[in-house]
Amino acid sequence: MSIVKKTYPIIGMHCAACKQLIEKMVRKISGVSKVSVNYASEKMIVEYDPNETTLDEISIAVSSAGSYTLVNNSEGERVLASPPEAKKLKTSSDLPKNSNHNQAAELKQEEYRRLKRKVQIVFIGSLPFWGLMISMLLEWFNPEYMNPLMKLGSITFSTLDYKLNLNHLLQFLISTPLLFWGGRQFFRSAWSAAKVWAANMDTLIVLGTLTAWIFSTYVTFFKSPFHEVFYEATVFIVLFILVGRLLEARAKQQTNQAISKLMAIQAKEATVLRDEKEIKLPIDQVVPGDVVVVRPGEKIPVDGELLNGSTTIDESMVTGESLPVERTTGDTVIGSTINKSGSFTFKATKVGTETMLSQIIKMVEEAQSSEAPIQKLADKISSIFVPIVISISFITFIFWLFVAPQFGLVGNNVTAFEVALYAAVTVLVIACPCALGLATPTAVMVGTGNAARKGILAKNAESLEIANQIDTIVFDKTGTITKGEPEVTDFFVSKDLPELSKLELLQYAYVVEHKSEHPLSNAIEMYSQNFISPSKNNFEVKEFENIEGRGVTATIGAKKIHIGNKTLLEQEGIVITDDFLNQAEKFSKLGKSLVFLTIDKTLHGLFAIADTIKEDSKRAISNLKSLGITTIMLTGDNKITAEFIAQQVEIDKVIADVLPDEKLEAIKALQNKKSSTVIAMVGDGINDAPALAQANIGIAIGTGTDIAIESADIVLVHGNLTKVVEAIEVSRKTLSIIKQNLFWAFGYNIISIPIATGILYPFFGILLSPIIASGAMAFSSVSVVLNSLRLKVFSR
């Protein structure tokens, strides 16, 4: 059985119950193992066996749940190729055509435009009712004011012995098309849900408006003891809910701008060398191995390895780092970043969906479509919300019709039926599961989008939520706290040998070590370049020999050069003098590697080499400790080296001499020590992968290995530890917004539904209008989305 996992946009979702309904229908398909629909992002993640079911069957199941459309391209996945030049997005046409994301964006734009036109038409049609409301208010404030509509009189049909009120007839003629045309989407959606024995938000709207319309129509055309009609309520309910959905759609577009902006930064074309000629190609025609030319100011089209030249590159749009970085021959360049200075050529290594930008977009898209654990409670309530509200509405109607009159709770100027109908309709209209459904995913969408722009990629919403609870962070040393590359920190020269200058020694060291590829040799070579001019060095190196595990030897002129460790010197019978012994002991205590330089078997210099600490490590660890987080270093290095590094960055605890397979056990031991502890592991190597997977949250340095990145829950695109602090801060702010949203969503329904039932009427004579209820319901959803958008302020 081969399970595939796909993410597809869904068009037509407009309430939290839609999510439950779509999931219910798709789960029924044989071969579907898991399905999750995100209401805010309007995307579905589905895992299925293509041998048992097809995408067409899944698409049919989605459509059978209601007026929903599953969007997919021919390959069933997002494709990134040949987008237009990056610019401020105004419409979906600014995005590449051949992607699910942008097919969905186009459909959503068209849906938004249709909704906007409908709102405008319904608003114009409702103007007479606005006039009616104003007249009623004037009459309420001034009893002597005569409503002009009341002067229309009545038409009498003698055969029916019934007077047809012209005012009511005009309201009927205006409201009926506005209800059934303006609210057509509500009726279609409610009917689709009813066909599969389900209910959604539109079910409540349809029940409320249709009940009010049927009652009003009966009063208008049939002899009745009632005199009030509720046509204006049906029109205003439709209008306010349409306006609410329009505002909600607008706000949701803003919460989901992260992916669109990431896609918009892609290069449009590449200059490729083919048959020794430069030709411009769309980036979807660039293949691995192509040699690409990049000039100052141009975007790097795809990922690759710099072949020749050097330059400064602005990688901020991918890594979140504001300062440009220098790149030279052999370095990796990232697609969609901007070349600031020199011209260069590079070999394309990753193209299409394999580029770093494509992978970032994929991770952000999946994270935004996933669900945080905190959402589960809201989902459970949303799944039973509509039936509960219908039940409350029915009980409310029965109470006011039969029970309330027995206790004299109904006023003299209205009938029990009118109060019962009024309250029941208000309950149906005011209830809002949408706010519950939007509370978590909108905040997650904005939070993950902001994090991505900072170079922090959360693979799912759960990791973003758990990061808020981290109380212990375990760091790998090499490549995480340190740069992972050896550097010369000290060069000691004997004072007893003045006949050889320091610069001359460095010249010998440079020309010999230039022949070696050992990491320590490279460190000495790079150090020497800072003091000498390699181009002016005329020394000829002969008889070069690399002695495995010891060092190198060579002959320069008549001089025999040895550069290596203590073992090499002992092998060659070279005496280490007391001053070098004393200095070597000091360096060793600091955990530094020692490389001796001898000329003609006389010791002249000592290099101290260490894996140096990243510039931001100490500041990052200090900031984490200020957040109340315990910091631990977990390393395979010896205890002396580890403790020296730990002292420099002021880390709380050191666990050293740990073999790669023991890192996993070390994380388990920390977790077992205190079950409530939430541990994050930060690493970059293959040997860190098991520990990253075991930790409650694995955080991988993006400059590390693919295996480490695959095992982690959060990826830092740039190898900067301050991003760990930012990830936790983003998580805490996002969780704060989620809790505010849930508090508002629960609080709104807990307070508004009892008021809608008429609980205040016996005491204060207050009976909430369905019109006000519809406005409140629309605002409750919009307010949750707007509150989530406050996270954008935090990202600046």
Automatic annotation (TrEMBL):
One of its GO terms (cellular component) is plasma membrane. One of its GO terms (molecular function) is ATP hydrolysis activity. Residues 76-103 are annotated as: Disordered. Residues 4-70 form the HMA domain. GO terms for biological process: copper ion homeostasis. It is a multi-pass membrane protein. It is found in: Cell membrane. The chain crosses the membrane at residues 121-141, 166-183, 204-223, 229-247, 384-407, 419-444, 742-761, 767-789. Residues 92-103 have a biased composition (Polar residues). It comes from the Bacteria. Keywords: ATP-binding, Cell membrane, Membrane, Metal-binding, Nucleotide-binding, Translocase, Transmembrane, Transmembrane helix. It holds the Pfam family E1-E2_ATPase. Belongs to the cation transport ATPase (P-type) (TC 3.A.3) family. Type IB subfamily. NCBIfam families: ATPase-IB1_Cu (TIGR01511), ATPase-IB_hvy (TIGR01525), ATPase_P-type (TIGR01494). This is Copper-translocating P-type ATPase. It comes from Candidatus Dojkabacteria bacterium.
